[in-house]
Amino acid sequence: MDLYSAAKDFAGPLATVLAAGTALLVTYNFNKRQVAIASSQRDIALDKLKHDVFEKRYEVYTTARELLVYVVQLHDFEKIDSGKIRELRVKIDEARFFFGPSVRTFLDDIDKEAESLLVNLGRRYSYEAEAYEDLWRSIGSDLAENAKKLSQYYSQMPIRFEQAMQLTQLTRD
Predict the structure, then answer these.
(1) Spacing of C-alpha 50 from chain mean position
(2) pLDDT digit string (tens) for 71-94?
(3) Closest CA relative to residue 90, chosen from 56, 54, 119, 60
């Protein structure tokens, strides 16, 4: 048997093995690229989710600040915009979906103190200053204490929200 005849006998099976190897290599490279694309899409979706959560958290944060500023500046019971207050409080109530227990507790404290200020403002409005002078002053002291606590909450907000609002939340580790 000569070399030509041996090569002729093994050419068909060798071509089949070579074609199968080439197909395997192409499939492997294609799948490797598909995995990279899927991983990239997963990372993009996760970044989008983190960004969306950040925006919702920031919206709650600014709404809480707006409520504090609005309520602290109230002095006349007749000028209270109850629709605005209700809208702000409903938006703040959404914090339960976006924050952990410490921020939710802080927001609940803000809500309770704001409610207390509004109740005291209503109580004071219902009494005439001249007829109930001592009670009127007492309620005035309560209002001052409410305003003081709300002002303290306002100054504490950046610290209380810092962990949840850090922009590092938007980056991959």
Answers:
(1) 8
(2) 999 888 888 999 999 999 999 999
(3) 60
